[in-house]
Amino acid sequence: MDKFVIKGPCKVKGQVNISGSKNASLPILAATLLFEKTVEIKNLPRVRDIDTMLDLIQSLGFLVKRNYKNNSVKITRLKKINTLTSYSRVKTMRAGILLLGPLISKFKKAVCSLPGGCLIGPVRPINLHLQALSKLGMKYNIKKGYIHANAKKNLTGATIKFPRISVGATENTIIAACFAKGKTVLKNCAIEPEIKDLTNFLRK
User: Which InterPro entries does this entry report, sorted A to Z (predicted)?
Assistant: First the structure.
């Protein structure tokens, strides 16, 4: 078995640049769908899920310009928007479900592949996303591995108590509630650092 042998004591000093958090970046990228003006996100980590999320956003009709020198991206909404997230793009990443909230909130419709290659219907924790968004007024059905969702009217704020804590469902509901009419209160929701990062971003 390979191992590292470290002999001390020794003085440790210097500076290390820490990459941005993937778990914080993904919901923030999803939330950029809400904005009509260009949004710039900095210090993105260079990981596959970030590439996949940006590819998804671009496929929806957004202009995505990446700057690899400073690990930033600029996202601009174009005139024609596609509200389908395809299985071929979502199958490798469960965070693709985070696009459901902003699509429903901003564009009133969405067809989203079940994430992670799941083709048998809503399973944990996707059902928590669907239950919470339904309480805001989203209607949906599932056909052949896709969530067909719509909101004929604006979403309406509600008091939502999650049956168990879910970071992703909390993020999706927060994003969707931004354009809901009235106040939304979330109970038994996640309070991880990435939730705070998302809410700070949305306040800007």
Answer: Enolpyruvate_Tfrase_dom (IPR001986), Enolpyruvate_Tfrase_sf (IPR036968), MurA_subfamily (IPR050068), RNA3'P_cycl/enolpyr_Trfase_a/b (IPR013792)
User: Is pTM beyond 0.85 here?
Assistant: yes
Which residue from 82, 66, 84 is spatially nearest to 74, judged by alpha carbons?
66
Domain 22-197, classified CATH 3.40.720.10, yes or no:
no
- What stretches in the chain show pLDDT beneath 50? 117-123
Listing DSSP states for 17-62 in one string gives PPPPPHHHHHHHHHHGGG-SS-EEE-S----HHHHHHHHHHHHTTE
**Nearest-angstrom CA–CA distance, 77 and 138:** 23
And the tokens for 97? 């479900």
DSSP 156: B
CA 116 – CA 136 distance, rounded (Å): 25
Which residues have a catalytic role annotated?
Answer: 118
Residue 73 makes CB contacts below 8 A (sequence gap 6+) with 29, 40, 41, 44, 54, 64, 65, 66, 67
Distance of alpha carbon 192 from alpha carbon 24, whole angstroms = 10
Residue-range domain boundaries for the chain = 22-197
Distances (CA, A) of 167 to 19, 26, 138, 141, 153: 21, 12, 20, 23, 27
